[in-house]
Design a protein that fits this description.
The protein is of the alpha+beta class and 222 residues long. The protein has a domain of 52 residues. Helices cover 44% and strands 22% of the residues. It has six helices and nine strands, in the order H-E-H-H-E-E-E-E-H-E-E-H-H-E-E. A four-stranded antiparallel sheet has the order 1-2-3-4. A hairpin with a 4-residue loop joins strand 8 and strand 9. It starts with a helix and ends in a 5-residue tail after the last strand.
């Protein structure tokens, strides 16, 4: 219970950074793979070992051992908290990177500005189920160049590609609708063809995001 409460207290609270008035919802909130906590865990165990040696070893060495143990515990706690608060969030509108403990850094970019995603999976990553994302976008200077130690990288890559594709389809349909409206206005109200009807009945225009189920759905699927 104490650990759960501590995790909630240290959570970066991503939801408060969403544009709720525009219908923005979280598609995927990416935390670091558990492997990033391996080094802090080893440091903590070594610190406990030093405390045991201090209790049963010579008293002259106790202050030195105690100092080393405290330093290791503080360093392990810092690395763990820093990794826990580092989040990469994919919404139906943007990608968001939140990181930092005392001072917080928040970087955002529209999903359509992501040009390419490269997934790198080292040997250990393939064995343990993590990978590194390298983004080619117009926002590389904002902290989106590389996202390391991402769990289930293939699934997450597919999610990002799907959101990008859906966003492109919505933008295309919107542009077609605006072009049709402008064309009818310039002709003085005279119909210029069946284009507006085709746009209004297009299945692409009916693709929606189900925020309750947190996935994309199409009403025409039944």
């Amino acid at each position: 219970m104490v650990w759960v409460g501590l995790r909630r207290l240290l959570d970066p609270k991503v939801d408060r950074h969403l544009i709720h008035s525009e219908g923005e919802v979280i598609i995927d909130e990416v935390r670091h793979h558990w492997v990033v906590y391996e080094t802090p865990s080893m440091e903590a165990m070594f610190a406990l070992l030093l405390i045991g040696v201090m209790l049963f070893g010579p008293m002259k060495a106790a202050p030195v051992l105690f100092g080393i143990a405290v330093a290791l515990l503080l360093h392990a706690a810092w690395k763990s908290i820093n990794a826990h608060r580092d989040r990469f969030v994919v919404t139906n509108m943007r990608v968001i990177r939140i990181k930092g403990v005392f001072s917080q850094s928040i970087a955002t970019t529209p999903i359509m500005r992501i040009l390419d995603v490269t997934v790198k999976k080292p040997i250990m990553g393939r064995l343990l189920g993590y990978g590194h994302f390298v983004f080619e976008s117009a926002a590389q200077e904002q902290g989106f160049r590389e996202i390391t130690y991402v769990s289930r990288p293939d699934e997450r890559d597919l999610t990002i590609q799907t959101v990008i594709q859906r966003s492109g389809l919505r933008a295309s349909v919107k542009d077609d609708a605006e072009s049709a409206d402008n064309g009818s206005g310039e002709s003085g109200g005279v119909s210029v063809g069946p284009a507006p009807a085709a746009v209004s009945h297009s299945p692409v225009n009916k693709v929606i995001f189900n925020s309750e189920r947190t996935n994309w759905s199409d009403p025409f699927d039944g």
